Amino acid sequence: MGRPAAGAIALLCYLGLSAAIQWLGLAGSGVAWNESQHCRLLVPEQLQLCRRHLEVMPSIVRAARRTQQLCQQSFADMRWNCSSIQRAPSFGPDLLTGTREAAFVHALAAAAVAQGIARSCASGELPRCSCGPGPAEPPAPGSRWGGCGDNLSHGLQLGAAFTDGSARAGTGGTPGLRAVNRHNGAVGRAVLSDSLDTRCKCHGVSGSCSVKTCWKGLPDLGEIASDLKSRYLAALKVTHRLMGPRKQLITKEGDARPVTEMDLVYLISSPDYCTPNPQLGSLGTQDRPCNRSSVGSDSCDLLCCGRGYNTYTEEVQERCHCRYRWCCSVVCRRCRRSLERHVCK
Ligand SMILES: *[C@@H]1O[C@H](CO)[C@@H](O)[C@H](O)[C@H]1NC(C)=O
Ligand SMILES: *[C@@H]1O[C@H](CO)[C@@H](O)[C@H](O)[C@H]1NC(C)=O
Ligand SMILES: *[C@@H]1O[C@H](CO)[C@@H](O)[C@H](O)[C@H]1NC(C)=O
Ligand SMILES: *[C@@H]1O[C@H](CO)[C@@H](O)[C@H](O)[C@H]1NC(C)=O
């Protein structure tokens, strides 16, 4: 592998990079990939991959967008609502340090890239990979392997090379942070691997399903995001400590559970995200809409951190008393309805 160009290094220093997920900034670029314009947004290790595999970059741009979208959807009802992910590639402390929130984003981003590449293989978008032959196991009775499965192994391999690139290049902060980011990326890919499932399509006269064609397919990334959200809630706090010959991620005292390859891990405790604090990457929850009848994280009680809320009445106009008129239209009246909205103090 050659040395990265000096220009690229200068740009990276200028951006002050230390985020392994800096490539999420690609979300803003067009899918039409332009090497001279876009590859240099990446850290040196990724730069090589970008130049050698230009054809996968559109999948990676889409993965970056999907990660941003899904993170914000998954956290819409939480104090930390993932809006800071839109600052990519220049993140704040909430995503640059080893927080629980950063753990979720690293895992989701890694899964998104692997899934995107696996799908692109199957759709024939990538000349260097294919859907290949069906699995070795025999198909279920009455069915046969066919169609084109998502190429998970290729997605995992190339995806890991890409997302772990910056961690391996040594640009991603302290060794402990790099180990945590690598671990969480691997969790994202493991969750994705576990979700590979057999999907079938029926053939036969008038939908009789006398012949079934099956292939191995991956679920929508939304399913992976919701799985990772549960793992975020159960994430383990770890330290990077010498155990025998190597440094490893060990759970903090009092947390006897060993770290498994399916646990998200974090190094530092997050703030409560109740009040603005730029040093900690907290935006606070003032002016966030809350739900007075909810008992979950979007309840006015929890979201507003006990500060209380203001209630506004909003008038909305709606179509109402609609009637069908011969022939052929629907006539409605306009009605006003008042709607209460609650917003955190
Ligand atoms: C890529 O972007 C650069 C800078 O904007 C531009 O000069 C160049 O023509 C573009 N190349 C292609 C192939 O679009
Ligand atoms: C995935 O793509 C690689 C590279 O083209 C190919 O060798 C392999 O057979 C494919 N595997 C599956 C399971 O589709
Ligand atoms: C997320 O929270 C921030 C800070 O409170 C707020 O400014 C932003 O509008 C919120 N985003 C969404 C989509 O609710
Ligand atoms: C508020 O929470 C309740 C209970 O969880 C739910 O049924 C309702 O749809 C929520 N309202 C809004 C506006 O989200």
TrEMBL record:
Intracellular or extracellular location(s): Secreted, Extracellular space, Extracellular matrix
One GO MF term:
cytokine activity
GO biological process annotations for this chain's record?
canonical Wnt signaling pathway; cell fate commitment; neuron differentiation
Q: Does the keyword Nucleotide-binding apply?
A: no
Coarse class of the protein's main subcellular location:
secreted
Tell me where the signal peptide lies. Answer: 1-20
Q: Which UniProt keywords apply?
A: Developmental protein, Disulfide bond, Extracellular matrix, Lipoprotein, Secreted, Signal, Wnt signaling pathway
Show the GO cellular component annotation of the record. Answer: extracellular space
Q: Name one Pfam family in it.
A: wnt
Sorted alphabetically, which SMART domains does this protein's record hold? WNT1
Q: What family is this protein classified in?
A: Belongs to the Wnt family.
Q: Give the protein's function.
A: Ligand for members of the frizzled family of seven transmembrane receptors.
Q: What is this protein called?
A: Protein Wnt
Q: Which organism is it from?
A: Serinus canaria
Native organism taxonomy = Eukaryota, Metazoa, Chordata, Craniata, Vertebrata
